[in-house]
Amino acid sequence: MEQPNMSYIQSMSGGDTAFEQKLLDIIKLEYPEERETYISNFTNREFKAAADNVHKLKHKISILGLEKSYGIASDFENNLLEGKTDLSIEFKSILDTITEYLQQI
């Protein structure tokens, strides 16, 4: 599985490490709550709400350089809108990978 990285953030920052840190701080602040909201909605079979949560999480997936994971998240979002839970295991794995990464940096 691909791993989160700082390449996109670094390309946006133009070498401004303060900007990079600020963006990371925002992600670290918002991500856990967004993840928990998604889990709650998915567990409660609120698939439209869960799709909205996936949509928000896709932005963080993209910022963390996870291109293939972004594609999976997009497909999963569409599945949820149709009431299908295909790709839920793959999406959970993406979230777990991001959680680990954010705890390490």
From TrEMBL:
<feature type="domain" description="HPt">
    <location>
        <begin position="16"/>
        <end position="105"/>
    </location>
</feature>
<dbReference type="InterPro" id="IPR036641">
    <property type="entry name" value="HPT_dom_sf"/>
</dbReference>
<protein>
    <submittedName>
        <fullName>Histidine kinase</fullName>
    </submittedName>
</protein>
<feature type="modified residue" description="Phosphohistidine">
    <location>
        <position position="55"/>
    </location>
</feature>
<keyword id="KW-0808">Transferase</keyword>
<keyword id="KW-0597">Phosphoprotein</keyword>
<dbReference type="GO" id="GO:0004672">
    <property type="term" value="F:protein kinase activity"/>
</dbReference>
<dbReference type="InterPro" id="IPR008207">
    <property type="entry name" value="Sig_transdc_His_kin_Hpt_dom"/>
</dbReference>
<dbReference type="GO" id="GO:0000160">
    <property type="term" value="P:phosphorelay signal transduction system"/>
</dbReference>
<keyword id="KW-0418">Kinase</keyword>
